[in-house]
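User: quick one, sequence for these tokens?
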């Protein structure tokens, strides 16, 4: 009578190791940190073409520094996607960022803002996204990404919100302020 070796004691540890390896691989491909930079458009010109004004001289000066400023804030990271509202002031604010990083501007219609945070989480996970928007739309996107509620004043043109969205984990928000000359801390740090 021949004895057969019992393979069950060997198979169970091998299957466990294979399952753990597959789990680690899956977690490594699923776990990503998404960085979203939310910037309000710069100051718009008042008067002519009030429905869709161009940037004012102060707004142009502020916007001109955005590409370099975002490069400083992101460090070694480079934006993968750039979104902007479909108004002149938002497009003109996004243009220096697009020029600095040599990337296209993806325009967002008014109806696109509600689904933007979901699109970022779904399609841009693990990427860096810059969004140039409005005092009315950016708080909505920030809330949908992080759960935080912010109110943006009509005259707040120097806020940048850096939203770090790890998967898995809780989103974190960093509020920065900038002037045409450079970056400064939140109010009260002067």
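Assistant:
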């Amino acid at each position: 009578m021949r004895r057969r070796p019992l393979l069950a004691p060997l198979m169970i540890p091998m299957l466990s190791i294979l399952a753990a390896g597959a789990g680690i691989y899956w977690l490594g491909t699923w776990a990503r940190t998404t960085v979203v930079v939310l910037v309000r458009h710069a100051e718009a010109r008042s008067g002519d073409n009030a429905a869709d004004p161009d940037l004012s001289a102060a707004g142009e000066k502020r916007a001109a520094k955005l590409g370099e400023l975002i490069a400083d804030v992101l460090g070694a990271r480079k934006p993968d996607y750039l979104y902007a509202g479909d108004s002149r002031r938002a497009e003109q604010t996004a243009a220096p960022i697009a020029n600095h990083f040599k990337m296209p501007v993806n325009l967002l219609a008014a109806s696109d803002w509600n689904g933007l945070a979901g699109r970022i989480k779904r399609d841009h996970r693990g990427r860096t996204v810059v969004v140039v928007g409005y005092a009315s739309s950016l708080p909505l996107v920030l809330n949908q990404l992080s759960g935080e509620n912010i109110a943006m004043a009509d005259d707040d043109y120097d806020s940048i919100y850096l939203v770090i969205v790890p998967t898995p984990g809780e989103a974190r928000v960093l509020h920065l302020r900038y002037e045409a000359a450079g970056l400064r801390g939140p109010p009260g740090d002067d």
